[in-house]
Design a protein that fits this description.
Three copies of one chain form a homotrimer. Chain A is α/β, with parallel strands linked by helices. In chain A, the strands form five sheets. A twelve-stranded mixed β-sheet of chain A has the order 6-9-12-15-18-23-26-29-32-35-38-39, covered by helices on one side. A ten-stranded parallel β-sheet of chain A has the order 7-10-13-16-19-24-27-30-33-36, with no helix packed on it. A ten-stranded parallel β-sheet of chain A has the order 8-11-14-17-22-25-28-31-34-37, with no helix packed on it. The termini of chain A are far apart. Chains in contact: A-B, A-C, B-C.
């Protein structure tokens, strides 16, 4: 293990392990990992036979491998001991590959998949059962399009991308203009470009640009059921969680994080590394500075949001106190008119 | 009718009915039902020829069947008079069933469906057109996988489940770790287990566990476009409405209800029978006690939320009043310094 | 250009153009358009060779076509110069069309598509790869069902509709009743009816009615990942943006707009032309008057919402000020008891 993850062994290097499990589920034959020093107590209570830790004391005397980042070591080790099964290369006789489509070496195309004319699929890429690759799509090497995903006309997808089941890449942008009688559709003639090493979640939808490109930058991570509208640009290594909606022409900076159900209106700019917490909303044209952490709708600095939320809970009480205070001051004033100093007695009058 | 739903006839038992309709649409040939005594007025105005009611007076003299739960009686009766059409058993010649897949008696597999090696499909289960059942999936008896749903590798689905169109069960969890240069994917090697009698809505996504299982308990009802992350556990008979997102490792108690667009962060525990109202949000690590009714983001007891919301609407007015009061007290204090009692006159100075 | 879009030429009518681009990306060979007079500055800085404008001065001396609505002119012109490629008519040998399905003249059915018995598909309609058209579905002329969409049993779709990829039309409504031991499913025997000229976004879900119909009115525009529950009625030309959820039996008025992530509870009525801004929520049974503009959850008039949100940000400060004022008044009162006038000195006592 230590060799594979680049760590230092502490304790008996001959310990034999069978599997890998979370701290609370690990048995004496299992390796586990301590993601964070806050889990030190869970680590001490774990039955795990060995641990991946960031510092020797966390292991509490058990055999361990000390690494800079235990979660990273866990990911590397898990990938090694339980590599993902891959379908065999080859085109299923039940798939439909149009003449004029160019399929790289070692590509796997599942039953029911359809690849249209003019599409190019890079070497070793997998197109799952029922997936659709439309006219003029280009997909790089070593990518994986899962079952029933739809990659629509003209989309570009880089190398080593993973597009999960049911995702729709390249649907029309939501653009129309009222002509006095009806909404007239604005043709959506741009495309979607997804750079290398991107992961797109199940049933996520990414609309093509009206003109130009909708872009998902290299290394970005998009979760399930996310809506990305026309002409949006997602920066490199950005993280977009489930059920987030990003409206037209907004820009998400590199390494920014949008937590679950965040809503970004159109023409918004989110700075690099900024964080929007769950359900936060940014109104039309908003600009979030790099590194900011915002919450709520409309989004405000997270600390202010927490403070306001705490006060909000006792708002009815504040309102009552204000009423009372006004009455009291009023009464005092009335009493004062008659020459009386303002006093608690005056409240009885 | 009375025999089928277990009720007591009131009025003419020879009344002949043609259909079943809601109170406002029912004609004299139709049966209708009074879901709730609050609908008594709608019942009295309805043209329905007969009614399912919980008490005789509600029927207002019309022929009726008195039952404990009229909506339940309606469901039973509707199921009887309009049974769902089912596709004929058999594997469509346009479906692809891999050698090594085990298909039970009376199973129906639609055109374009694909069933991979190592999958098992229980007796009388239906796999709709274009649906994909991946390697090693096990599905119980009498379940129904609707058109274009994707049941991914290793998923377990119980008996009498209904998985609606476009649902994706077993997609990768959203797990990765920053390695200093990029997000490295944490392999997602667990699975999804769905117990008996569960219904999963259209285009809902349920991610496989990182290790172990993501679980949907017996009898749970999941609506459309719901996102359920890795290692989530949904309790028995829980109800999860449309567009809800539940982040990693959270636990939803038995019979809890999450209304539309609720957001549950990761490592949250929702107690048995608790209710989150529409758009409520529970932050990371939150614990909702059994039976609680919460609203808002961050979620607070529903009554407090309503009170705060009411005050919130007049918050600008409260702020103005506080300004005024401060000025007034300030002025009074200033006047007081000069020996003047604090009075309304002082406001004019 | 002027002829096609019905405008008046200003400047050199012999200007030759190659393409069409947004103001910031246009080159001297490109036409562009000034959507709004607020973009006048961007127009003056644009390198575009010619412009579609609403008034001559906006063109700043460049060749231009003056039209009433430049965005509309852009849409018309774009449609003309870059018409959407359409698949050739004909049924793919890899499609499955059941005997008993009726297919109009000039229909195109892609590979992997399935059309069940009793379905009718109008002339020139396109059914994309992997799409499913179930039993008894009726689709009008010149409609387009994109790849992997599911049109379920009995659904009616009008003429000139566009249903994007992955959409599910006619899934079961989310209806059940507790029978004391379990949720018993209420059969969903109604259908979905979509009128003419409607566009439905990718991975959107529309549930069939319990009894009767779920309706999307003529000309409505529905974005991606929208959830429309059983028995909802969407008015003509209504606009419903991404990730909106509309619960059972609610009615959305004609030309109303629901912005992204809006949540409409059940039995709500939204008046004609009303606007709900992003993430707004309307509680059960709510009634929004025609033309109203509402925000927040629970939804309140937009202006009030903005004012409350502004005050909310300084709520902790208000709370502190109220505390201080109370103390001050209290102290003054205490001092007053002893005959002292209320003064700033008393604070020190």
């Amino acid at each position: 293990v230590a060799g594979a993850v680049g760590g230092r062994v502490v304790g008996d290097p001959a310990t034999r392990l069978r599997g890998i499990e979370t701290l609370d589920r690990a048995a004496p034959e299992d390796l586990s990992w301590v993601a964070d020093d806050r889990h030190a107590r869970a680590a001490s209570e774990s039955r795990a036979g060995a641990l991946l830790v960031s510092a020797e004391p966390v292991a509490g005397g058990r055999p361990a491998v000390v690494v800079t980042n235990p979660t990273l070591a866990f990911a590397i080790w898990l990938d090694r001991i339980r590599p993902r099964p891959r379908p065999r290369p080859g085109v299923s006789p039940r798939a439909h590959v149009a003449r004029g489509a160019r399929i790289g070496k070692g590509v796997s195309v599942g039953p029911g998949a359809t690849i249209a004319a003019g599409a190019r699929v890079g070497a070793r890429t997998i197109v799952g059962p029922g997936a659709h690759v439309a006219e003029g799509v280009e997909i790089g090497e070593d990518s994986w399009i899962h079952a029933n995903a739809s990659i629509l006309a003209g989309t570009r997808i880089g190398a080593r991308c993973m597009i999960h089941s049911g995702a729709v890449i390249g649907s029309d942008g939501f653009g129309f203009v009222w002509d006095g009688l009806a909404h007239r559709k604005i043709p959506q003639v741009g495309r979607v470009r997804i750079e290398d090493d991107v992961e797109i979640g199940a049933n996520t939808t990414i609309d093509r640009a009206t003109l130009g490109e909708t872009v998902v930058g290299r290394g970005a991570r998009i979760d399930n059921l996310v809506q990305i509208a026309h002409n949006v640009v997602i920066g490199e290594n950005a993280v977009v969680c489930g059920l987030v909606g990003i409206a037209g022409s907004s820009k998400i900076g590199a390494r920014a994080t949008l937590a679950g159900q965040v809503g970004i209106s159109d023409h918004v700019t989110i700075g690099e590394g900024a964080i929007l917490t769950g359900q936060a909303g940014v109104p039309v044209g908003g600009r979030v500075p790099p590194g900011a952490v915002l919450s709520g709708m409309p989004a405000a600095p997270h600390r202010n949001f927490l403070r306001s939320a705490a006060v909000l809970a006792r708002l009815p009480d504040l309102a009552r106190r204000l009423d009372r205070l006004e009455r009291r001051v009023e009464e005092a004033a009335a009493a004062g008119k008659g020459g009386e100093p303002w006093s608690s007695e005056s409240r009885r009058s």
